[in-house]
Amino acid sequence: MSRYAVSDIHGCQKTFRYLVEKELQLKTTDTLYLLGDYIDRGPDSKGVLDYIVELQKEGHRVEALRGNHEEMLMQSRTDSTYLTTWLLNGGAEAMESFEVATPQQIPELYFQQLENLKLYIKLDDYLLVHAGFNFSAPDPFADTEAMLWTRKFEVDKTILGNRKIIHGHTPISLDQMATTVTTPDIDVINIDAGCVYAGRFGHLAALDLDTVELIVVPNKE
Questions:
Q1: Which domain holds residue 206?
Q2: Residue 77 CB: number of other CB atoms within 10 A?
Q3: Distances in whole angstroms, Cα of residue 113 to Cα of each of 7, 38, 109
Q4: For labeling, which of 67, 128, 204, 211 is most exposed (least CB within 10 Å)?
Q5: pTM, to two decimals
Q6: Eight-class DSSP state of 65
């Protein structure tokens, strides 16, 4: 019974499938936590969302969080400002994968899928979130904007306790990630390896939450 966390797939369905099936060899007794940003920029946003549902229908334990890109898509149906921002940040590629010209033409079942995404998951040993938390807020777990969008945040140990925060949202190099994972007593681990980007990024990472080991694959799109 292993637990894995993966973040920021960004339309890279082939890479995601390879990581799950070949590297993790995910079993129905395992749990896969997905930390958001399944869509945009990459070639197959629709395929990523479909694969998440496929895994769940096959009996896999998959718990998925909402990222800021899912939020942009959801808001873009009724807000022109969000629509402009979304299109400039990979929304055009997402619509191409759905073979539609507007977000309103994306089938409703996908919006139902996105509406059901959680903003955070609290485990005994981890807090899982897409971007981070605003610990200066009266209730950090009610600050939706921070959980979806924040880049930098200070940790309040009285709230965090003995947990570690696992998040994505901001791409970092594999060297940075490996250093963070192996640093004793660190409170925050970023697992966004910038799968959809080239250069020093271009990898999809899974963190084994029990062994605190990284499983990494290069972009296979």
A1: 3-121+172-218
A2: 13
A3: 17, 12, 6
A4: 211
A5: 0.97
A6: B
